[in-house]
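Progress against Task 2.4 (sequence-to-structure conversion) is shown through the following example record, which the project officer requested during the mid-term review.
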Amino acid sequence: FVIVVGKGGVGKSTIASTLGCLAAKSGQRTVIAEFSDTASIPRLFGHEGGGYAPRMLAKNLYAVCIRPEPALQEYALRKLPFESIYRLVFENNAVRRLLKAIPGLTELLVLGKAFDLERERNVHGQPAWDTVIVDAPSTGHGVNLFRLPQVLLELVHKGPLADEARSMRSLLQDNKRTIVHVVTIPEELPTQETLELTEAMEETLQMPLGTLFINRVCPRRADPVANASIDKLRSHSGIHPDLDRA
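Structure tokens generated for the chain above:
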């Protein structure tokens, strides 16, 4: 369960997609989940839009756009025996207004869907996904989202909701199953937010931190001596293609 977090506009989706490509190329069946009304990740792979169901982007690589309303429908249909009952209850305007007024319900639904991807099993009882990559909301919203299971447990101690929140919190804090990568850029405001974010992840949420990606840093150019050496090597036949590209 790989979570990619950071301030908006620092390139979280690009990093999440790159990590997805690396996992897929290593043979892992991988899904990238983004919490958004408009799917941006499929466009990076030449696909228009994206839906609530996982969509194949490349070999072993899929993407899913998690939105609250389909998440509510999926959850309700698991609990109700017939779709007609769902339509009668949840497509009622009064019920819709009530649901929108419940604090944290939207966040709980989208986090629950990501959690479902992690625990999904195939017909053989094996995990449906080897790697689940979450393109998390921007800094403040992301922290509140991952804090939600703990907040729920402080309010509700028993019952199905508490059990679900406890399972979510267990996953988020498990350093054998979960890792949080942080993305930033070398500018003052994103750097400050990154420091606050990592502190919240470690101390408040107790989530296992992974790599800090500093995006938009141009690689240093090779000096003239190195360039001369590379040119000399390139003049020989049978040069390794990696060196030729360098």
